[in-house]
Automatic annotation (TrEMBL):
Taxonomic source organism: Aquisalibacillus elongatus
Swiss-Prot/TrEMBL cofactor(s): Mg(2+)
UniProt-recorded name of the protein: 5-formyltetrahydrofolate cyclo-ligase
Family to which this protein belongs: Belongs to the 5-formyltetrahydrofolate cyclo-ligase family.
UniProt binding sites for ATP: 3-7, 134-142
Entry-linked Gene3D superfamilies: NagB/RpiA/CoA transferase-like
EC number: 6.3.3.2
GO MF annotation: an example: 5-formyltetrahydrofolate cyclo-ligase activity
Reaction equation(s) it catalyzes: (6S)-5-formyl-5,6,7,8-tetrahydrofolate + ATP = (6R)-5,10-methenyltetrahydrofolate + ADP + phosphate
Length: 187
């Protein structure tokens, strides 16, 4: 329940940050991201198509393509034990609007990518702590996915999305690092 309270509060906070401000935060965050070895060495990047209140992931996807990296995006299966699969993403026409402002890849088995092929996974979330724990959007999709994911996993956030400690449930799994506009917090 505490997680839902935080979700409501953080969503409200994110709604009040203007697109212009978010754009500037993103510029500073990605500047750090692109300098990391995780980014430089990754051939395949796992990332979401951002929703309206989030930091826009499109510039990151464009940058990955520019650097000849493969981009893979998740498809969630709410009716199949909140499983998540990643698919190759090469252009906008491959997207399907599944709910409100939520976009996912169409199911195309030729484009299915196995977890071990993803070198760097950018894990979305609303609130984070310095140990890498997070409150996501509440589906438990990433917690389940991370159980079998051994490569690098990081999150991008604004400093105002960072708190000292997030109470954790036994199934919550931390990311390896959080990159903000100010710093890279390696866990
Ligand atoms: N590994 C798991 N196995 C079974 N159920 C899980 C697992 N991880 C999470 N869940 C379930 O998913 C629900 C949502 O978890 P939680 O509130 O931590 O979501 P979240 O971390 O915000 O979501 P996400 O991981 O998609 O970002 C919980 O009620 C929990 O029971
Ligand atoms: Mg969780």
């Amino acid at each position: 329940m505490y997680k839902d309270t935080f979700r409501t509060l953080v969503k409200r906070l994110l709604k009040h940050i203007s697109p212009k401000e978010k754009e500037q935060f993103l510029v500073d965050i990605t500047k750090h991201l692109y300098e990391t070895e995780w980014w430089e060495q990754a051939d395949t990047i796992g990332i979401t198509i951002s929703r309206n209140i989030e930091l826009d992931t499109d510039p990151i996807i464009q940058q990955a393509w520019k650097q000849n990296k493969a981009v893979v995006i998740p498809k969630c299966y709410p009716e199949d034990d909140h499983r998540m699969e990643f698919y190759q993403y090469t252009n906008k026409h491959e997207l399907e609007n599944v709910f409100l402002d939520l976009y996912e890849p169409k199911k195309d088995l030729n484009k299915l990518v196995q977890p071990q092929e993803i070198d760097l996974l950018i894990v979305p979330g609303l609130l984070f702590d310095y140990d890498g724990f997070r409150i996501g959007y509440g589906g438990g999709y990433y917690d389940r996915f991370l159980e079998n994911f051994l490569n690098h996993k990081i999150s991008l956030a604004m400093e105002q999305q960072l708190v000292k400690h997030i109470p954790r449930d036994q199934y919550d799994l931390p990311v390896d690092a959080i990159i903000t506009e100010k710093s890279i917090y390696t866990i």
